[in-house]
Amino acid sequence: MTISTIYFKDFETLKRHLIAHKKTLFVSSQTSTVIPFHFIEDYFSKNEFYLAHLSTLPAELELLENNQLKVSGGVTWHEALSFCRSRGRDIMSWPTDETANVLAGLSTSATGERSFGFGSLRNQVSKITYLNFKGEEVQLDSKKRIINHPVFKNFENELLKYQDSFLPYFKMKNGPFPRLEFETDLMIGMEGQLGVIKEAIFDTIPLKETNFLLIPLEKWEKDFSPHLEIFKKVQDFRGQIYSVEFFDSNSLSYVPNNPLAKNKDFVALEVLEDSLPAVIDNLISKLNLSNMDEIFEMPRGKFNEIRTEIPRRINEENSRKGLVKKGTDAQVNEENFEKILRIYQEMARNGVPYGLLGHFGNGHLHFNFLPNKEQVVECERYLKDFYLKVKNLKGSPFAEHGIGILKKGFVVDFLDQSVFRVYKHLKENLDPFDQFFPLGFLNLYKEN
Question: If you compute the radius of gyration of the chain from its CA atoms, what whole number of angstroms results?
Fold first, then answer.
């Protein structure tokens, strides 16, 4: 087997690569937790395969007259955020790791930060331009229903069955399979399996100052009733609170020089500065907490340093051991949040080191096992059991990081034949040479 690594300096070179129909995994910053880049050769056949970097493409940012942001090429979230904020605008949601590329974030539908206040990333995208297998530029519009797209001509009934299968996940960030409601959904969450995103246009909002309120709590493993109370009460404050994040004492233990209290969990509320007095009066003061005097404010920049450091250190710990990540990315609806917390309590008693963190307000958390090599097989068994329980709760198994290579085996139980028929139709019509990430989840139809 030969894996050839290539870097694109311009779009014309990329287009020539596309029309050669070479089997390719397109990557950017390689921050994905579902693609095992350190072990990538173990997953491919003996045929020639390309690992193609898009981060070297010309990066362009433009704030349009209607205050929408146009992004093209290898732009990171940090660059896009800085660009907007220097012009008095802000992006609504983005993944935790701001070094990731914006267009790759669309491809994986990485909707982490602020989705509590503004919904998923797909809600903020107006238009997408992508390159198809012929190297042609194709524009998709978020206002146009996908059922009217030419690819679904004479296939409308199958698409409707697919959309019916998606209904249990409609209120979630992402379901176990792409939403396919509007044209732009042909690219969002598709993990580059139907084309390469060249450009996207996002809505932005006026820049407003925010601060974080950090609420220390006793460990969730023993008693999560205070955590659950906060979860339920914050749901009525989405206009004043942008994000509700969580990290437990175990996750914080991996942060060097951690400035927060040890052996404590923390819920962090990103609150509009103008709304802070109202949030304190109408939410914080009404919580049944015994340590109200321990709640404190933290500037956004300082909080982001801690929040970003946690998953980074966890990934470094796995890499040091020569292991791929063993963790969850599940979301459940509000009525099932207590049930999934109990499931996490059960997992915490398995004897494998772990940490729990994530986007608390959305009922979307990441339980990360941190095993040694002898514990890897049992962790796989625990995760298989976990995802079956998530299915019974009608939860989404992978709400923001995509499926990639590592999670395909877990997602199959969530898919029915209507999903596989649509997958087959999309690959045959939009990727007839199977050149776009052939190990991706769309090709699961071949096995089912």
Answer: 22
State how beta strands 137-141 and 60-63 pair.
unpaired
Rounded Cα gap, residues 307 and 317, in angstroms = 16
- pLDDT, tens digit, 9 for 90 and up, residues 154-195: 999 999 999 999 999 999 999 999 999 999 999 999 999 999
- CA 414, chain centre distance (Å): 18
Range of the structural domain that residue 154 is part of: 60-206+415-447
**DSSP secondary structure letter of residue 68:** P
Torsion of CA 436, 437, 439, 443, to 10 degrees: -40
* pLDDT, tens digit, 9 for 90 and up, residues 408-444: 999 999 999 999 999 999 999 999 999 999 999 999 9
List, in order, residues 6 or more apart from 273 with CB less than 8 Å away.
208, 209, 210, 211
Residue 297 β-bridge partners: 213
Return the CATH number at 306: 3.40.462.40
Q: Is 50 helix (H, G, I), strand (E, B) or coil?
A: strand
- Does the pTM exceed 0.90? yes
Q: Are residues 253 and 282 in the same domain?
A: yes
Same domain, 189 and 234: no
